[in-house]
């Protein structure tokens, strides 16, 4: 068995323009699945940890195309998404309730969520229990950036990029970055082995009693050491060896930030963002509903 590798992938897009938006999306997905399978073939068996930061469309596609290969190569799949320990009553006050009570990533492609979670792969779920607006509030992030900028030697590239990202989306380190942090320093998370069931039409994931029909065991993050996460962000921001950002990097980052601001003016994206914010805030509650029955 080879050493464990953390796998990051990007899809290779076609140069020819598809004839319709639907065909364009299908082509991107097909190429992403092909890229994932190609990457898996180049590694030892049981050696890879795959980090998924969005919907599970591509991994589900890979499982459909070559399930034996996926199971043979992947040691673990870390998924940013899901929420099981949010009070059901609280959903009524937020937009996610209209989506069946599912966290956005799981809801976005519910069939893929069901396929992956129920595939038999080793799953670690980094959900809204730990990846939420309270793990690093916007003001806390701003303070960390200002703290670094005040240090002698100028602004490092990590600090500059994080500041730009923060201006574009003020909760930029509250979600995906938390899942990444789990890969780097897993000792600062509390994990529990739980049995769950995913509804294939809504993406809602529910804890159930062990051994219930159509249920599977996964590892779920239930706590994070916020102080250690802040220390880690601080260490990145205060890296004395980091170089100052180049003019080209600044231009690209500013362009990306401007595009984000333009996108945020779109009504539907604004609704999605408000939904994400509201759902994340729900995770601040300490109330944990018990697993549901098998019925």
Describe the protein:
With 295 residues, the chain is α/β, with parallel strands linked by helices. It has a single domain (5-136, 170-222, 242-282), classed as Inosine-uridine Nucleoside N-ribohydrolase, Chain A (Alpha-Beta Complex). It has helices spanning 21-41, 57-65, 67-73, 88-91, 104-108, 110-117, 138-149, 157-168, 176-184, 226-237, 247-264, 267-282, and strands at 5-7, 48-52, 74-80, 123-126, 189-198, 205-208, 216-224. The protein has a seven-stranded mixed beta sheet. Helix 1 crosses helix 2, helix 2 (57-65) crosses helix 3 (67-73) and helix 2 packs across helix 6 (110-117). The protein is globular, with a radius of gyration of 20 Å.
Class derived from helix and strand content: alpha/beta
How many structural units, i.e. domains? 1
3D shape: globular
Roughly what is the average pLDDT, rounded to an integer? 75
- Summarize the biggest pleated sheet: 7 strands, mixed
Broad CATH class: Alpha Beta
Number of helices: 12
Question: What is the rounded Rg?
Answer: 20 Å
Strand fraction = 5-15%
* Distance, first to last CA: 41 Å
Classified in CATH, the superfamily is: Ribonucleoside hydrolase-like
Strand order of the largest sheet: 1-2-3-4-7-5-6
Q: How many E strands?
A: 7
CATH topology: the name is Inosine-uridine Nucleoside N-ribohydrolase, Chain A
Quaternary form = single chain
Give the helices and strands as they follow along the chain: EHEHHEHHHEHHHEEEHHH
Q: Assign a percent range to the helix content.
A: 40-55%
Low-confidence stretches: 8-18, 92-98, 260-287
């Amino acid at each position: 068995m080879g050493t464990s590798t953390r796998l990051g992938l990007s899809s290779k897009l076609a140069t020819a323009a598809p004839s319709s938006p639907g065909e364009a999306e299908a082509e991107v997905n097909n190429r992403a699945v092909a890229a994932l399978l190609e990457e898996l073939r180049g590694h030892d068996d049981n050696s890879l940890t795959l980090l998924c930061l969005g919907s599970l469309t591509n991994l589900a596609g890979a499982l459909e195309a070559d399930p034996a290969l996926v199971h043979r190569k992947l040691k673990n799949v870390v998924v940013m998404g899901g929420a099981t320990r949010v009070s059901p009553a609280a959903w009524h006050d937020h937009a996610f309730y209209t989506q069946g009570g599912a966290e956005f990533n799981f809801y976005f492609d519910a069939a893929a969520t069901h396929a992956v979670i129920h595939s038999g792969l080793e799953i670690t779920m980094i959900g809204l229990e730990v990846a939420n607006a309270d793990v690093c509030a916007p003001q806390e992030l701003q303070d960390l950036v200002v703290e670094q900028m005040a240090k002698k030697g100028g602004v490092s590239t990590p600090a500059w990029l994080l500041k730009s990202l923060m201006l574009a989306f003020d909760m930029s380190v509250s979600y995906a970055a938390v899942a990444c942090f789990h890969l780097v320093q897993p000792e600062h998370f509390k994990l529990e082995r739980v049995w769950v069931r995913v509804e294939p039409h809504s993406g809602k994931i529910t804890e159930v009693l062990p051994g219930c029909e159509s249920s599977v065991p996964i590892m779920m993050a239930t706590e994070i050491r916020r102080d250690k996460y802040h220390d880690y962000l601080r260490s990145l921001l205060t890296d004395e060896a980091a170089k100052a950002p180049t003019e080209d990097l600044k231009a690209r980052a500013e362009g990306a930030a401007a595009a984000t601001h333009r996108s945020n003016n779109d009504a539907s994206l604004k609704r999605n963002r408000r939904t994400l914010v509201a759902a994340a805030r729900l995770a601040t509650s300490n109330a944990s509903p018990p697993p549901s029955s098998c019925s």
